[in-house]
Amino acid sequence: MFTNNEIEQQVAEFLLQIKAIKLQPNNPFTWASGWKSPIYCDNRVTLSHPTIRTYIRQQLVAAIQDKFGSVGCIAGVATAGIPQGALVAQELGLPFIYVRSKPKEHGTGSMIEGDAATTSGKRVVVIEDLLSTGKSSLQAVEALRAAGYDVAGLAAIFTYSFDIADENFKQANCPYVTLSNYNALIKYAEEHQFINEKDVNLLRQWRENPSTWGEMAAS
């Protein structure tokens, strides 16, 4: 049985190896929010690597069983959480549904896709690929609760470990678990020469003040 630390480090290694996570402290990315960021994470890349995809699926299942116990349904958050959630549901032999970011603008106008007649009311775990502030994830949680589901919590591959995310999940009374996190990633990246000591300092400064880091880095 792997320890949590071993899983965190292994997932960090995989994400860096396949460039699902890219670190560019001196050439920051721009997020959709407008934030400047020295890190970019796209866990959909893992789906193209069967060995890594299998490892992540198995560890998400183990984390769900350890953290939440018995559940009756798995829900993916559109869009990146859909394939990961479907893989987890298949492994557990459970029904799968997914939650849109907003209601469908045609047809039934559904926000939750799947067989509501057989899944509504079940104890469900929500699957995400990545957590930043948690806002979109918790929007899905609230949609499920409003539709009559009993949300046990959320499981994700990676979190940026923002304090605001912890606060948002606490306020929503929604426990969560992730396979790896920002601190584990930086530790692995430094120990294996993905970044140097100066980069580490920049990356730690960003996590502390992500919304203003770009302004400080430019000054």
UniProtKB/TrEMBL annotation:
Cofactors, names only: Mg(2+)
Is Amino-acid biosynthesis included in the keywords of this UniProt record?
no
Q: Keywords in UniProt for this one?
A: Glycosyltransferase, Magnesium, Pyrimidine biosynthesis, Transferase
- InterPro entries cross-referenced by the UniProt entry: OPRT, Or_phspho_trans_dom, PRTase-like, PRTase_dom
Query: Gene3D superfamilies this protein is in?
Result: 3.40.50.2020
Phosphoribosyltransferase domain location: 65-159
Q: Please describe what this protein does.
A: Catalyzes the transfer of a ribosyl phosphate group from 5-phosphoribose 1-diphosphate to orotate, leading to the formation of orotidine monophosphate (OMP).
What protein family is recorded? Belongs to the purine/pyrimidine phosphoribosyltransferase family. PyrE subfamily.
Q: What is the name of this protein?
A: Orotate phosphoribosyltransferase
